[in-house]
Write a structure and sequence with these properties.
- The protein has 286 residues and is an alpha/beta fold.
- It has 2 domains: 68 residues, Orthogonal Bundle (Arc Repressor Mutant, subunit A); 185 residues, Rossmann fold (3-Layer(aba) Sandwich).
- 35% of the residues lie in helices and 23% in strands.
- The chain is built from 11 helices and 16 strands.
- Helix 3 crosses helix 4 and helix 9 packs parallel to helix 10.
- The radius of gyration is 18 Å and the shape is globular.
- This is DeoR/GlpR transcriptional regulator.
- GO terms for molecular function: DNA binding; DNA-binding transcription factor activity.
């Protein structure tokens, strides 16, 4: 069963509460000067490449409306880009152009398949799970056990097409605007809709994982999806093949410590294995 929900809300951004961006914890600006706020916004966006309106408002202790006006001034001045749910740097405006879901699917296919099979053992009949975008998570949808009733909330067209062929499976789609490269839906109304759902598990992918810079993704629009999905879930599971270790992509969306379990392949570098163990995460090697 495919349940498609289109919600048209007046809210234009998402404020992450449970999964705080590392940038929100790192920066605190108890200031009221507009020029100081503008400089601070540029510093944060320059460092993390993407910031949500909600996180900026919390960092500066002002209203989201105030931040929207500040961002509009910076956009008009040609210093940042306004994107769904927040603001992005100009520096990486073309950095995502090389990512293509169909091409990415053929990269490290064996490792992704093994990771997906291992991740499928973490699901139990009756689970409600959010599935992130990305080819490894799509592989998970293809590796599900034949028997068992599940409910999945997802925003990837390719993953929805896989799940729609299953019996006894409910698929909840949140609508939005479809990206022709990533085959994912995006938009503030769709992300806002995700906040009213709850899941006992979420499976998240990443384009890069670097010890200092944490987890990153290719598309600025994906940050809000990933953060909202993590906020709405009890157990957070990261699926990442070993080719992603040591890489940094366009946008930072979380620290690895925000996850409960990491599923990867046996090519994981030793420093990353140690880091995950020291942080107390469950590590599943496929």
């Amino acid at each position: 069963m495919l349940l498609v929900e289109h919600l048209f809300c007046y809210a234009n951004s998402v404020c992450i509460h449970d999964v705080e961006c590392r940038s929100s914890r790192r920066y605190s600006f108890p200031m009221t000067s507009k020029n100081q706020r503008l400089d601070g916004i540029l510093e944060m966006v320059g460092s993390h490449h993407f910031m949500s309106i909600g996180d900026l408002a919390k960092s500066f202790a002002v209203s989201e409306m105030t931040i929207r006006r500040d961002v509009r001034d910076l956009v008009d001045a040609g210093k940042v880009r306004a994107v769904y749910g927040g603001v992005a740097s100009l520096e990486n405006s073309g950095a995502t152009a090389n990512y293509n879901a169909q091409t990415e699917r053929t990269q490290h296919a064996d490792e992704k398949r093994r990771i997906a099979l291992a991740a499928s053992t973490l699901l139990s009949p009756g689970d409600v799970a959010i599935l992130d975008s990305g080819t490894t998570v799509q592989q998970l949808a293809e590796c599900l056990p034949a028997e068992g009733a599940f409910t999945f909330i997802c925003y990837s067209l390719n993953t929805m097409n896989v799940l729609a062929r299953r019996e006894d499976t409910t698929v909840i789609s949140l609508g939005g605007v479809l990206s022709p490269k990533s085959y994912t839906f995006s938009g503030p109304d769709a992300v806002q809709a995700l906040h009213k759902y709850r899941a006992n598990k979420v499976f998240i992918g990443a384009t890069g994982y670097e010890l200092k810079h944490g987890l990153t993704c290719s598309y600025v629009e994906d940050c809000s999806w990933k953060q909202a999905a993590m906020q709405s879930s009890v157990e957070r599971i990261l699926l990442v093949d070993s080719s992603k270790f040591g890489k940094v992509s366009t946008c930072s969306f979380a620290g690895v410590e925000n996850f409960d379990t990491v599923v990867t392949d046996d090519g994981i570098p030793e420093p990353y294995r140690r880091d995950l163990e020291e942080k107390g995460l469950k590590l599943l090697i496929a």
